[in-house]
Amino acid sequence: MIRTDNLCRRFHVGDSWVHALDSVDLAIDEGDFVAVMGPSGSGKSTLMNILGCLDTPDDGRYRLLEQEVELLDDAELSRIRNVHIGFVFQSFHLLPRLTAVENVMLPLRYSNTDLLQARQHAEHLLTRLGLDDRLHHKPNQLSGGQRQRVAIARSLVNQPPLLLADEPTGNLDSKTSDEIMELFTELNRGGQTILMVTHEDEIATYARRLIRMRDGKIEDDSLN
């Protein structure tokens, strides 16, 4: 599903260049559940942004679902993000004026999905995630765990083959974190490919594969 060859990303800081990614070679198969760990500044988020087509490398190649990503234009990249990738972030990124259902429906507004069908699909996802009694609540009426479940439902509404999660439990208590990770495990068993950045060892244990990064390089890549 994912393959990178000699992936490099540099940033100009002051009078010098910082190598956020330094010759990263990575392969992720369909159905993998991968946790990425490393200290601050190790390149985790930069790697996630490039794999999610939110950023572009300075050197190297990135193939996603047999497509050479660096050859795609902005419209094609937008289509890939909307159709093939689901994003889950630490800060949820829900729109405060919209209800849970309306937030989940957002990605479908950029497709040809019928509005009624989109609402039914969003309601089904939220019900599946245990939020059937919160469908019409706005984010400020939901707990942190409930907001994260809404964000997960939104990431799944287009049925993307790849789910990218950046510190998905960072703002949650331990009980809610475990519930979210059990949900990720269930999704992975159902065929979802998951790549997750985390700084918590106990969260990383849910993944089947662990990648450790340091100074923009992959330091270790092993089964968990």
Question: What would your notes on this structure say?
Answer:
This protein is α/β, with parallel strands linked by helices and 224 residues long. It has a single domain, classed as P-loop containing nucleotide triphosphate hydrolases (Rossmann fold). Helix content is 32%, strand content 29%. It is built from 7 helices and 10 strands. The strands form 2 sheets. It has a 6-stranded mixed β-sheet, with helices on both faces. A hairpin with a 2-residue loop joins strand 9 and strand 10 (217-223). The longest helix is centred in the last third of the chain and has 16 residues, at 174-189. The protein is globular, with a radius of gyration of 18 Å. The two termini are 20 Å apart.
Structure characteristics:
single chain, 10 strands, globular, four-stranded antiparallel sheet, 224 residues, alpha/beta, Rossmann fold, 29% strand
